[in-house]
Specification:
five-stranded antiparallel β-sheet
Length: 348
């Protein structure tokens, strides 16, 4: 591990501080080993602190889509959907091209099927959500060796699955919609029907993609909506898993939770609400503890996740920053080598 000086304006919010930040009157503002959350970064900017040192060597965050590409695709989706009005669908055809570009960029990632990807909780932006589940569903489909045409249709369905949210006025961000007043919850659930109805008569979008818009909140035990269906097509079972996970980590229709909590939810309802094979395919590539996660081990050490181990999403490499007595240390532990050590809890 080495230290690297970073401009505060370039920080993303997952870095581990390599040197304490000290004020002019010698008070420690942030200690070495602190994970730089977004609120910390904003505070540093307010205090006119322009540079900090962070750990960089060995910290290997692997994202399905590079940040700049994700932002570009998000901009495309937002631009198209914000211009859309009910039954005025000409510009939505552009999203078919966006879907192909997302697939192409994922396929260009070396050994994409063998990698473990870092997926982080974030704000409830419906456009970013659509890009995210499109990426997740693509990797699931690749793990399942599905044909290219079906992958394309799945991606189009993902990009348009929440089209109906544009037609409702219910506040669904970071709230459990089941706890809303009955009439509001009923209105929220109609977004699946609104989106499907808007595209039902369009010839440029396949029935596969249309069904995903209608069925993406159905569950295999019949507990979903709007149809309480149990006989559900494969592509809809794929979007079930990806959408439920991503909603949880960004707070769409529910309270936002940590990645590991969302993963535990999928495991708990594997084979009950969600298709077991699809959950298994999803968990093959999803890091339980994304790079930058601050954790405590069963030996009461605290540390930060540095990188993932291929095929072992729950056994990353971590940098121990404090021992069990709270004393600062700098020890790297690969949890594949330290068999008796495991992550007990996430603390930041």
């Amino acid at each position: 591990m080495t230290r690297k000086k970073y401009n505060v304006s370039d920080l993303t919010g997952s870095e581990s501080l390599a040197k304490s930040v000290i004020s002019d009157d010698f008070n420690i503002l942030l200690s070495s080993g602190t994970i730089l959350r977004q609120e910390y970064i904003e505070k540093l900017k307010e205090l006119n602190i322009t540079e900090v040192y962070v750990w960089v060597e060995g910290t290997e965050s692997t994202d399905i889509l590079k940040k700049e590409l994700e932002e570009s695709f998000k901009s495309e989706v937002k631009n198209v959907l914000e211009k859309h009005t009910y039954y005025n669908n000409e510009e939505l055809i552009e999203l078919s091209k966006t879907a192909d570009n997302i697939i192409t960029n994922i396929l260009e990632e070396e050994e994409v099927v063998d990698k473990i990807f870092d997926i982080r909780e974030r704000s409830s932006d419906v456009y970013e959500h659509s890009i995210s589940i499109c990426s997740l569903a693509t990797v699931v489909a690749l793990h399942m060796n599905l044909p290219q045409k079906l992958i394309h249709d799945i991606c189009v369905g993902c990009l348009l699955h929440d089209l109906g949210l544009l037609y409702i006025t219910i506040d669904y961000t970071n709230v459990n919609v089941e706890e809303l007043e009955e009439k509001d919850y009923a209105e929220y659930k109609k977004h699946t029907i609104y989106g499907y109805s808007a595209l039902q008569g369009e010839n440029w979008i396949s029935n596969v993609s249309k069904n995903m818009i209608l069925y993406h909140h159905e569950r295999i035990d019949g507990s979903g909506y709007p149809l309480k269906a149990t006989d559900i097509p494969l592509e809809c079972r794929i979007i079930h898993v990806c959408d439920a996970f991503d909603e949880m980590i960004c707070g769409i229709g529910c309270k936002r939770v940590k990645v590991y909590e969302a993963i535990e939810y999928l495991k708990a309802y594997r084979g009950i609400k969600f298709d077991a094979k699809i959950v298994d395919a999803f968990l093959e590539f999803t890091a339980v503890y994304p790079v930058g996660t601050y954790v405590r081990t069963n030996e009461e050490e605290t540390g930060v996740v540095l990188r993932q181990n291929k095929k072992f999403p729950g056994r990353p490499v971590i940098l121990i920053t404090k021992d069990k007595d709270g004393r600062p240390v700098n020890i790297t532990k690969d949890l594949l080598e330290y068999n008796s050590v495991y992550i007990k809890e996430v603390i930041g």
